[in-house]
Amino acid sequence: xxxxxRFPSALQTMRTFYDGMADGQLLEATLGSLRRILIAFALxxxxxxxxxxxxxxxRLLDETFGFVVVALQTVPSIAWLPFAIIWFGLxxxxxVFITTIGATWTMTIASRSGIKNIPPIxxxxxxxxxxxxxxRLFYQVMIPAAIPQLITGMRMAxxxxxxxxxxxxxxxxxxxxGQMLEEGRSLGDTSxxxxxxxxxxxxxxxxxxxxxxxxxxxxLLQYGLNxxxx
Amino acid sequence: xxRLEGVGKTFAxxxxxxYTALDDIAFEIGKGEFVSILGPSGCGKSxxxxxxxxxxxxxxxxxxxxxxEVTSPGPDRIVVFQDHALYPWLTVLENVAxxxxxxxxxxxxxxxxxxxxxxxxxxxxxxxxxxxxxxGGMKQRVxxxxxxxxxxxxxxxxxxxxxxxxxxxxxxxxxxxxxxLNTRKTVLFITHNxxxxxxxxxxxxxxxxxxxxxxxxxxxxxxxxxxxxxxxxHHIESQIMDTxxxxxxxxxxxEYGDDYTLEKSPLSPSAAHNxxxxx
Lengths: 230, 279
Known about the structure:
- By secondary structure, chain A is mostly helical.
- Chain A has helices at about 10-20, 25-55, 60-75, 80-90, 90-115, 120-130, 135-170, 175-185, 190-225.
- Classes of the chains: A mainly alpha, B alpha/beta.
């Protein structure tokens, strides 16, 4: 049995990376995946925050649908792909759908607890200074007070979205990293496969470290929550 | 001014029977008066302040402030909380200007008026800092500035200096007295510190515990600004001490059991022990 081709060398992988970038295929796939994840992430943040706020403010909703959300979070989002294929077909939409689902529940739970954990004294004093109980209280006090937890929630949601995206793309059609990975398998091109895995890892690291961790650190420092470094 | 009549407040408790926190409280505070409410922990003095602030509702009786029945919190009655309650995401300046923003005052004027109050509490250099960068005493000064900038009729202070160290507290007593002499706000000050109550107030209302009632009222007729060595203050302080002794015993009995008695001896322990040997 020949094992050589199953384990690509570093040189092979780098050449594949270079070729892929040079003829634009790899770049196109990366941009395709990024486009999908950004759409899905934006959607899940919007839906998750809305649901989270509703759960935090309404006890009735929280005790009925809140429980369902916790149950849904335990379902790996790829489990929804068969449904998505039946509903939308094997296309872009199905992938965006399961990616959104993968991130939404985490975001919901994070924003729910973010709002619920606001010290009551913040809300009391806000009313004393005349914010009322409506929109002004919401965006001038509740949202900023919940920001540290919202950012942490977003960071987790982003990680979940990546996972859902790649697994979705492996199966569904459309230009993307997961699809290319699957092509690599059917061609037996392991260097391409490894190359894709590396691109996913690098993108994940960059987005987590350079975007989310930076924002999180800055927020924690501003809020005085970063006691270890401050 | 503030007027309370027959005010009662009961909290639901595990087991059904309600816990009476306040019972038949009645007092009046005139315009420009500085009144302290003094009592052991758990006597309901903070609840009393919350009623005046409108953060809680009374079960019986009526609470009136500035001639109107209190129904909700409002910018005419600003509370300075024990743990300052500054917003950590806003700078000192933004925190102080927060209430003005809600009033719809323009940014430039907001800034000027907030800065004026920040300078009045000697924090001009720290206007752009965030609350966590300040010490406890500085945070409490910001909270006072944030209250004063609203120009409220009534200033409600809920043990504002209880978490501070002794030196900072003495300094803030002086500053608060000065602010009060300049602005002549009506102040309701909650504390469990006898010295603090006597030093700052025109009148001290001593509360009894379980249920919370006004036990006795002391009028502090000493010259202002108050001097720490004033014998009038010391005299009232020891009178209040006697009034509170019974309350302290009640609290201790609740916590340690019925056999607890507060020992009282007219002689100092060392003098009693040496039979006056060293005199």
